[in-house]
Amino acid sequence: MKIFTLCLFYINLACNSYTLAKTPDAFIDQSDSVIIKIESKQKDRFYYPDDFGNVTYLEGESRLVVDKPYFELIDGRYKISYFLKRGEMIRILPQGGFAKFDTGDSIRNQELLFSTEYFKKFEIQFYTGSFYERTFVEQKYIDNPQLRDNLLAKEYEKEIDFLKQYQDKHRLSEAFFSFHTDVIKYKILERKLFLGHLIFPENYVRKIIENAIVSLKRDDLLFLRNYRNASNLLLYDIKKLDHARSYSDIINQTFANDTKDFVSASAVVHSDQELIKLSASEILSITANLLSLSRQSAYKEHVEGIHAFKSLVLTGEQILGSNGKRLNFNQISKGKLTYIDFWASWCKPCMAEMPYSKRLQEKYAEKGINFVYVSIDNNAAAWQRAGKKLGIPQADSYLMPSSSMSAVAKKFDISSIPRYMIMNQDGKIIQENALRPSEFKIRAVFDKMLKN
Fold it and tell me: Which positions fall inside the Thioredoxin domain (predicted)?
């Protein structure tokens, strides 16, 4: 789906999601992990983002291997970021309002509580609104950019003063103060770089760019979402100002090391969106540089999957199997009555239906009903990752690339998901809008069809 505004780009980063519930064998400390126990039945509240905006929701007990000193966990109810330390065990107790954290260390609990108190002081009035509201991009600031700079500078000073007071009150370490100073700094920088579609004076934009280039050389802070967002915005702002330059040239001359690898990978991942729109030749150039020079294997793997996916050409009603082979849509029945689930890794209602689908499959697969899952993801890596997490058998997992252009999607008007269909043994759709797995009457439908 095309994203037509800068604000929608941020919404898009927040809506690619799936739910993960992991239970470790023993609730024990591991130095390479963060161990989280959420003591609440409320679902879809706490999640963590990956580097490209995909988010994973957590439930129950989870042990997550992390390769950075801090792990960002977000309370989706208020959009508050909490920074957990690698090797930490933590209980989260949502009690109707704000979350309560218990690490077994009162000092550490106070450190985590800072994010809640910061939110109450500076962000509570904005959390139901948009990021745009806090960036000062109205016409009066275009006419007087210094006023915009002064407002952002005052906000930075107020937030640092609040941080210092909190540190002194609770006798927290200088390391705590230094870390959250960086968090605040890059929150402000992200807002400063967000110039919208309006035209600020060129000298003002160039000054912002020059300062940002110096600030965005902190590879050690790539785990900060605001640092990553600021890096992407810097690329966009430079391109907007010097539109004749290629993205590849801007990346090579502006960024370095791991930050450069991230910006390169992010540009490819989001290349079909308006924020960073790449031509086919630019995608090839950036991908080639990343794959040959990057030290980040995770970025390489992600981009390789994206590149292969974007270059895939399917004809007619073809879809893609998990083995990479093309096949016609009507072949998925395999000569059996087939229940088809159209879903995506980012679709929370789809995720909610999966446990019901699994129970249906356990009951009816042995009776001769075939269950298949057709993803409409635009990211092959996200499809494969989510399918693995959900336990979808590879033989039953398919991908419908470029779903908005797919002949299958057009034929059956697949414009929203989850969507369910029933196909007969000959590969003909006999129900275009079948009941969901969670609807008990679907069992009666299956029973009747099996008798005929």
Answer: 300-451
Average pLDDT over residues 112-120: 96
Q: What is the pTM of this model?
A: 0.71
Same domain, 324 and 349: yes
pLDDT-derived band at 315 (thresholds 50, 70, 90) equals low
- Rounded Cα distance between 63 and 26, Å, is 10
Residues 363 and 398 both lie in one domain: yes
**Best CA proximity match to 323, nearest among 427, 398, 403, 406:** 398
Taking the CA atoms of residue 127, residue 58, residue 49 and residue 99 in that order, the dihedral angle to the nearest 10 degrees is 30
Look at strands 55-58 and 17-20 and give their pairing: parallel
* Contact assessment for residue 214 and residue 208, using Cβ atoms and an 8 Å cutoff: no
Q: Does the structure show a pLDDT above 90 at 114? A: yes
Contact 319, 327 (CB under 8 A): yes
Q: Total structural domains in the chain?
A: 3
Contact 336, 368 (CB under 8 A): yes
Shared domain check, 355 and 241:
no
Shared-domain flag, residues 118 and 140: no
> What's the pLDDT tens digit per position in 10-57?
433 333 433 333 433 333 446 788 889 998 776 678 988 888 877 777
Task: Please list the residues that pair with 328 across neighbouring strands.
Answer: 318
Select from 70, 104, 129 the last residue of a domain. Answer: 129
Sign of the C-alpha dihedral computed for residues 166, 168, 173 and 178 taken in this order: positive
Half-sphere exposure of 259 (CA within 13 A, CB side): 29
Whole-number average pLDDT of the chain: 84
Domain limits for position 175: 135-311
Nearest to 194 by CA among 230, 218, 222, 224: 230
pLDDT single digits (tens) 251-265: 999 999 999 999 998
Q: Name the band, by pLDDT with cuts 50, 70 and 90, for residue 314.
A: low
Helix, strand, or coil (residue 229): helix
**CA distances in angstroms from 420 to 2, 114, 430, 434, 436, listed in the order given:** 25, 46, 11, 5, 7
